[in-house]
Structure formats: C-alpha cells, structure tokens
Specification:
Order of helices and strands of chain B: HHHHHH
Largest interface: A-B, 12 and 20 residues
Helix content of chain B: 55-70%
Oligomer: heterodimer
Largest sheet of chain B: none
Shape of chain B: elongated
Radius of gyration of chain B: 16 Å
Number of domains of chain B: 1
Chain lengths: 55, 132
C-alpha cells in the first residue's frame, strides 16, 4: 500500500509541474496535468503487472 | 546579437540562476508569483518526501556507484540551496540505507533536482519572451 501511495504522490507532484510549464491557461494546464497524472499511474500499474510475471 | 538582446539574455540567465538556487524564485521575480510559489512548493515537497523516505544526496566526489554516482549527484544538485543546506546539515548524507524506502527516497531527491532544472529553463524562456 505504501508503494502505491508513493507512486501516486510522485505522479501528482510531477503532473503539477508538467501541467504548469507544458501548457498555457489554467484550464489547459489542469487538463494536461490530469492527463500526465493518469498516464503515470496507468503505466505504473501496467509495468507492475508485467514485472509480476517476470521471475 | 544586439546590446539590448545581450543584456536581456544576461538578466534571464541571472533570473534562471536565482530559480535554481531557490526553487520558484525565477518565476516570482518576473511577477509570476502564484506559478512560482506552486512550483517551488512542489519541488520542496518532492525534496522533503525524499529526505523523509531515507533518500541519500550524492556528492560530486562520490564513487560508490561508479560513474552513476556523478549522474545522481548532478540530478540532486538541481535542488540548489536545498541540496547544499541539507548536505551542510548532514541530512540525507548517510551511505547506508536506514529505511526500506531509501531507494524511493533517492528517486524523489533526484527528481526534485530535475524538476528544478526544468523550472530554471521555463523561467529563462519566460524572461527572453519565448513563452508567455
């Protein structure tokens, strides 16, 4: 559980920075940040499942 | 390059350097106070989380991981004053992992530095009007 929370915290912090510097306008920044956050979490889960099967 | 451009680039470089030293300062000094404060706090939160998780700040003379130590140190160095103050205070300098989350801590510390490098470049771009 701790690992998942750390991954989510990491994704959230990085997403704020990427959102703020990657787009202009509050709405665009929010949407882009949300997209980055979702990508981090989804890719994290996918990699975790792939690595689960790797001995 | 005209004299005016040269002065602008110098001012932008000084601005970026201030941003590297204190995360967010490069934006605040250009009047983008909210943006600077939010981004500075994010870098600070990343750094503080890394320290709390037992991460380690690599020094440039460290050779414990071979050449990678230099790469890690270059990443850590991005945090500017936070890096120097923490090292001077002996925080996050132990080469023995004290917590089972130390590896996560290392990553948080390195990414805090890398994000601050990005903020530096962003502040520079704003100063030379490459972006609004």
């Amino acid at each position: 559980m701790k690992h998942l929370l750390l991954m989510i915290l990491f994704a959230a912090l990085v997403a704020v920075v990427f959102g703020a510097i990657g787009r202009e306008g509050l709405r665009n920044q929010f949407r882009y940040g949300l997209k980055i956050f979702a990508e981090f979490v989804v890719v994290g889960f996918v990699l975790a499942w792939i690595l689960y099967w790797v001995p | 390059m005209s004299d005016k451009d040269g002065k602008g680039a110098l001012a932008a470089s000084i601005n970026s350097f201030a941003g590297w030293l204190l995360p967010g300062l490069g934006h605040v000094s250009q009047g983008r106070v909210t943006r600077g404060l939010v981004l500075g706090l994010v870098v600070l939160a990343m750094f503080a989380t890394g320290v709390t998780l037992g991460g380690r700040l690599y020094s440039l003379t460290d050779t414990s991981e071979g050449l990678l130590s230099n790469v890690f140190a270059a990443c850590d160095l991005g945090s500017g004053l936070l890096y120097f103050l923490a090292r001077a205070a002996g925080i996050a300098t132990s080469d023995q992992a004290q917590l089972d989350t130390a590896e996560y801590g290392n990553i948080f510390l390195m990414v805090a530095g890398l994000l601050n490098y990005l903020l530096m470049l962003d502040a520079f771009d704003i100063a030379v009007r490459r972006k609004s």
